[in-house]
Amino acid sequence: MEGFETFDAAGTEGVTDVRTQEMFINMGPQHPSTHGVLRVLLKADGEVIAAARPYVGYIHRCAEKIGEVLPLEQFTPYTDRYDYLSAMNNNLGYCLAVEKLCGIEVPERAQYIRVIVAELNRIASHLVAFGTYGLDLGAFTPFCYAFRDREWILSLFERLCGARLTYNYVCIGGVRHDLPEGFAEGTRNFCDHMEKTWKEYDTLLTRNPIFLQRTAGIGVVSPGEARAWGFTGPCLRGSGVAYDLRRARPYLVYDKLDFEIPTGKGEAGVQGDCWDRYYVRMLEILESIKIVRQCLDVLPGGEVRAKVSKALKAPEKEVYLGVENPRGELGHYIVGDGKKAAYRMRVRGPSFANLTILGKLLEGAMIADAVAIIGSLDIVLGEVDR
Amino acid sequence: MAMEFPVIAKLLEGRFPQAVKGAVTDKGDPWIEVSPGGIVEVLAFLKEEGGLEFDLLLMVTGVDRPDGEGGGEIEVVYHLASTTQGGELVLKVRLPREKPLCPTVTGVHPGALWHERETYDMLGVEFTGHPDLRRILCPEDWVGHPLRKDYEYPEEYGGISAK
Amino acid sequence: MEGEKGGIVQPAAPGVLLTTLDEALDWARRGSFWPMTFGLACCAIEMMSAGGPHFDLDRYGAGAFRPSPRQADLMIVAGTVTFKMAPVIRRLYEQVPDPKWVIAMGACACRGGPYYHHGYHVVKGVDRVIPVDVYLPGCPPRPEALLDAIMALQAKVDRMKTFSAGKAGEGGKEA
Description:
The complex is a heterotrimer of chains A (386), B (163) and C (175).
Chain A: E1 23-27, E2 39-45, E3 48-55, H1 63-69, H2 76-80, H3 87-102, H4 108-136, H5 141-161, E4 170-171, E5 174-175, H6 183-206, H7 209-215, H8 223-228, H9 234-238, H10 245-248, H11 274-298, E6 318-325, E7 328-335, E8 344-348, H12 350-355, H13 358-362, H14 367-377, H15 381-385
Antiparallel strand pairs in A: 1-2, 2-3, 4-5, 6-7, 7-8
Helix pairs in contact in A: 3-4, 4-5, 4-11, 4-14, 5-6, 6-11, 11-14
Chain B: H1 5-15, E1 20-24, E2 31-34, H2 39-48, E3 56-65, E4 73-81, E5 88-96, E6 101-103, H3 112-123, E7 126-128, E8 156-157, E9 160-161
Chain C: H1 21-30, E1 35-36, H2 42-51, E2 74-78, H3 86-95, E3 101-105, H4 107-111, E4 134-136, H5 143-158
Parallel strand pairs in C: 1-2, 2-3, 3-4
Helix pairs in contact in C: 1-5, 2-5
């Protein structure tokens, strides 16, 4: 062939004129491993990614504009839908911000119930993260196991409020109604079961040689970089920064509860690699089980919802309140101007901030590593785009 | 232990008398107003200074205020947190609504890259010096800035009716 | 497997069945939908649950989710359609080979859902972009509801009768 020297298969001395070219590969927005409608344009030099450009906005559903139009109490269902895997936590973040704005105090029983549902949702969300991460890397069994146990949590939630995914249960002033009969016992049974099956999950993936090869030392984010790029949540803690809002700026009754903050230590490879971020999530499942048990033990009696005026108006103030979602800090910045609807409703989605680093993180990685890296960031596009 | 807001405000006013315009404490969460020209150095100081160490830029956002004097304003709001000291801080920059220009802070906090793009997309604030200022959520040829108070909803886009 | 016309006839010879080509083809198609992994938003999670072990879409033959549109024949549009995503949906739909079907899963895909008012970036229903065979309301619909939608689609495919309807590929008319 013209332009090519004879290729000597025994050695590479004869190869001088092989032409190479960079290739553009489009990943998404329809892709099995992008965890939603994410598009990444990869400029690949062989197997290595020379540059990556993420495109988001494919599920931009105008939540902030809707927040300026609807009265405060009608906006809660929309909060379920940004990070649809942790809807209880989203409801919670929004309601806490509104309660801070309007000066509403929540009864103690409601606070404990909120913690229970928030932590159960954290376990459910981390189970999906575990299952889909395995699926991304080619392991189908973790997905089936994780979804089986997640169904238990969803059936508890269904017994509680009738919904499996988008609950609208945590509301302004407390929670919509009290725990039904059998819920506490069902939750305790689940916690016992989950502790046992956690060991199965750990055996399936954590020290699996293939998993280690694909995640250890890949996608390393140093602690300084993590802070500079706005990481929060398990991604930040995976890089060794022990920052958790439940300890740093405690809300509800977290300051009365006993739990650890797992951080990445580089056990499998380098601190801040994909494995660390994955393992932090695994350990957080155990911590959440601890928290749920403590709350069930001390659950006080009383009301579950404060009296909130039917014509609730947002005072002429502004507040910001962040909560620790399974993916990071979910913040609501609400500016009121005396009307029923907020003047400005800004939602800080943790996945949006966590994903910012993607273009830089993929540079120099192999194409197959792109999947491992995106999966380890555990993003939900509903939250990125809102 | 995190420094209290009045202490931080005084420190900044003393250190940056030109850039820091003042503090507002009676409208909910307190904030410090900074001039557009001074926001970068103030953020750099807040990040490096021992005792403050605001190393986490949580978000950059904007609020449209068309009813202010002189044709209205757009406020660009910066929310900061410290992973080491545990503090929180809010800074604001007020820009004229007709031509909202603000310097980018991606040199100090690279994580502002997408937040600034979103503020541009939703409110039309132009961040000078931003490496890649284009729309992020809406399509690149979208008309208008949706979170402005006078935004008109589109009739159709790409041949698909929006009604 | 009895139809109004045709059905199956078992003649005296064992192991031999007689039926019409339409019956056989419709039976093969309805029992082996290959959905494309096309989750957009929250409904995608319920679709994943439907594919998971608890609800098991695979017993309907519809569990072989294919990432590539070229290898799929069912597009379950699970989630909100936005203007940015609409051309992508159109392109993917055109890439799916015939015969193909679309299930609009969830209130957003049916008619815009909770984003109908004030959702400036939301398309009010995926049928403004591609033709839809089954509408499945819900926000999100339960996995059992998705199974019900698959069964409704199976009933629709049973009526396809590609050959007796006249020209090949012009199915869908009641026999």
